[in-house]
Each structure stands twice: as C-alpha cells, then as structure tokens.
Amino acid sequence: MIVIKFGGTSVGNADRVAEAIDIVVARRHLRPIVVVSALAGVTDALVAAADAARAQQPEVAASIIADVRRKHEDVGLRLIQQRQDFFDAFVAQLSKQIEEVNVILKGFAYLGEITPRGADRIMSIGEKFSSVLFAYTLMMRAPAEHVHSETVVITDDNFGSATPDMDATTAAATEALLPIVERGHIPVMGGFIGRTPAGATTTLGRNGSDYSAAIVAAAVGAKEVQIWTDVDGLLTCDPRLVPGAHVIDHISFDEAAELAQFGAKLHPRTLEPAMTANIPVRVLNTHNPSSPGTVITRTPDASAGPRSIARKRNVTMVHVTSNKMLGAHGFLARLFNVFEKLGISVDLIATSEVSVSVTVDERQNMEELERKLHEIAESVEMLDNQCIIAIVGQNLMADSRVGARILGALDGVGVKMISLGRSGLNLSIVVDDAEADGAVRAIHNALFETPVTV
To answer: What CATH number does domain 306-449 carry, 3.30.2130.10, 3.90.220.20, 3.30.365.10, 3.90.650.10?
Structure first.
C-alpha cells in the first residue's frame, strides 16, 4: 500500500482534479489510499463565513457558502455528470453538508462567538466537500469508496491543533480502510480532520492534510507516503524567490523537518509519524508527474554541506539584557518561565554573558511578555518585522568555506542574530524583512550557483 495526498492547489479546479485522478489510476497497482485537502481557497472562505455569522452578517455568510457550493458543483458538472446516478449522489451529499454548515453558522450567530470546537467543525467541512467530490470523480475511472476521516483518525481534544492517539488510530484505520483495500477498491478521505473518543470533530492545524497522510500511512503500515503539490519536490530555495532553485533528489527526515519548521512545502508535523514508522515520504508535482521529486528517508545523504534555504517572515526578535546574568544561576530559568506561562514558543536562541536574544512568530500576549520581562531584566527590546533565514544541511560547518561564503554573501546586510545548532543541521540568521529577499538570493548564489574552488 501507499498513501497519496493531494494539496489544495492540486485539486483547485476541474482540470486539476482530473490530473490527480490520472495519477491515482496510474498507481492503482500499488493499492493506494487517497487523502485530499480542501479545494484551494475553500477553508479560508469557510472561516470568512464563520466570521460574518458571528458579526451578525447573515447575507454575507450565505453568499460565501453559495459560492463554495457553486465551486464544487461546477467541478462535479465537468467531471461526474456523464453518470447521472453518481452526480445525483454527489449533489445529495453536498446538500447534506451545506445544511450542516448552515446549522453551525446559525449557532455562531446566536452565541456571537466561535468556540475552538465550533471552529474545528466548520473548518473541517472543506475536506468533507473535496473528498466526496474526489471519490465520485474517481469512481468514473476505478472502484473507489469515500471514507469519513472521523472514523479513521482519533485524536485528543486540543481543538485547532489536535494530536493523534496512534494506538486508537491504528485500530480505527485497520477497521475502516483495510477491508476496502482488500476488495481492490481505493479509499478516499479528507485530510486535516480527526475526532475525539467522545465524537467531537477536531483538526490537526492549518495545512494539516500532509500530517493526516503520514498518520494514516503509519497506522496501516504503508510502504510510502506521496505528497503531491505544485512544485517538483523540495528545492534549494523557494522558486518564486530564486527561479534557478533546483530540486533536491534525496534528503533526510532531520533536514526536511528543519525546512518544514521554516516554511518549506510540508506541514511541520508531517514527518513525525513517518519517522517513527520509518516510512519514506516522497514530494511530487501534480502538474509534472514525470518528475521523480524528492524522497525523504531516515538515512542522510553521504555528503555534508548545505541542502536548502528556507525563511520565516514577520517574526519578532526579543533582546533581553541584565547584569543579573553575570555569574548567576537560575536567570535563564526565570526568563523562559515567562514564555512558558504566556504560551509563547521560541524559535531561535542566542546568549552572551549579560544578554539573551530569542525569536518568536506569535502576535498574542506580546505586550504582557514585554511587561513581565521588564520585571526580571534591566533592558527589553522588541524588534518586529524580522525574518529568519535558515540554511539547512548535514554538518554545515564541516567545510570552513560554507560559513565564509554565507557571511560573505551578507556583506552590507544588517545581521541581527546568528544561531547554529549543535547538530550542525541549521544555521539561522535574522535580518530585517526588508532585506530578506536580497539576502536569500545572495546566499543561494554563493552556496549553490558559484563553483567551489579548492
């Protein structure tokens, strides 16, 4: 078995859905299980409808939902209407889900608020729409069955970013999916969605369909996870920023996890279940299926050095200075206890004898953070509109020329912070957002485009 996942851009319109169906049919002999995201833009539309309902704007909410329905019906008309029975069944399912949406929106309007549980329920509908649409479209070409994601992925009740119970999910997936595969049919389910043992719908976090695919693969013992997206794989840089970026044919789980954390085309948690089960993950391009893509495995490439550059924009750097640090113990514990109590996670850390610099990418509780840090430090500086540039690879500093080239490429750029992990996997540099694009291009040119001379 393999698990095939399609992202929103891979099922964005009728032509894209047709391409995805071709990909699945061509791999039917591999006994695929299909996981799909919501159609491009649908989840954002559902969030907007929820906000409109809460704000007592029912006409706006109704208009948004009508557009969402029309989008799915238009694709269905293009791809399913040749079989009237399939199309009628699809429309019936769509109508039932639209009714569910309207009930949820009325609840938001009545309460004047959106609870975390309610938010997960409304945001899950996009994947329910798309998976039903995809299943009926696939039935035109091959035996397929729609599977409700809530019957497969069992999670805790951390709404908005739920964590799977892998033992319960393995049991549920075995019962829900394997009989379908054994019949020679193709299961189709929405990503991003789970449920608690009590039956409440949960989501795994925005863009969590990648994560769903890896969870399902680990649960059923699949041989590979295929993440189909709109680029040829993981690249040496974002091709929108550096057109000359090239595909990385092989990368380790550790390296890919670092890249995902800093914005690569993978959900940051995607690799956790795949790493645990030692299942390869392959990133492929729906629009260019002949490309071999990038394969991610536990074993790193034999050669050391940089593999890719990622960036995370709009972060805040927090710089704390205190003479109390000098020769004292316990200061860092008190410092990071402030972040813990406010629920603010830290990306990067750099320390000296009397100062600590960290980066955060959250906007909540920032004023309270600054106030509490002033209680334990003499000086607190908050720098907004910063960008983390992460250079990822194996044993980055094994070759002294790598560091020299990176710093040389940053000549004229105001570097605010540098952090190198002990593992040598990630050298991160913080610069102003305004200087980030030029800095990334210069680093990419120095590391991947300029020949190295010995």
So the answer is: 3.30.2130.10
